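Hello, quick one for you while I still have it in my head. No rush at all, and the record is pasted right below.
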Amino acid sequence: MSQEPLQIIPPEKWGELQSAFKKDWPRGAPAHSVLAMQKLWVNRGIDYEFKVYCPFGDVQNGMVAVNEKNACYEVIIQCPNDNVENLYNALRETKIIDWKKSPLIPYAPSHIIKLIKTLLEDKNISEAVEIELILPAATFILETKIPYDDVKLPTGITFELLTKKYVDIVDTTWPLRYPSSSTYFELLINNKCGYGLFQNNALICWLFVNESGDLTHLYTVKEHRQKGYAELLLKLVCNVLIEDGLMVTSYCLKDNYSAMKLHNKVGFTEIGDVDWCHLKSIIH
């Protein structure tokens, strides 16, 4: 029996992976960010079953992480160099990934998208899954380590962590909603990763930091838009991450012009393009 090519990498060795991706900057930023956030979760005692693997146990071969969120089966594939031969061979032979679960490959740079397309030429994999959709996005990072000093809450507005009572409203307004995504937001809220602005105890604007360390689902209630609340909340949450020693990363779909404009306005740097690759199980 051949050995499983994807070898598990324990949290105490994730720093080696981060160093490899740091040398592949800025392309390595997404991998570096998710590892940093998951290290923080481990240190906080959060039990999240995030599994990190390296092809044949070598960090230079890249990273494959399985992030299963109920109905969303996410497989993070990253590589700190252009030579993806070992990564390709590992993905072709592995029994770790269940291709029939319709994996979502998030924030994949161009050499990974090319790898996935090549991988799908393999008969065993092409019979199980096909590309359903590729969504292009821009990667933004906040390069400063100095918190914003121009944030002031208007009279009657408070900045608070979200509680589970708000799960339904944040879930129903999420454009990427999927079956059981409400449990995903409940997880983030339980782990103190959901933030909101409140007026007279009513939630008017919210933003999350997901398990990859990325800002996500910034939303303002319709009657409170065009008042600067999204910008204010974005800066407040960035300050929280900066104070935790984390890099601030965010992704905007290329056709979300208002989100991209806001990120540029508050000082984010656009460092490159990535794709969300949605794979679809083939039912015979």
User: Anything to note?
Assistant: The mean pLDDT is 95.
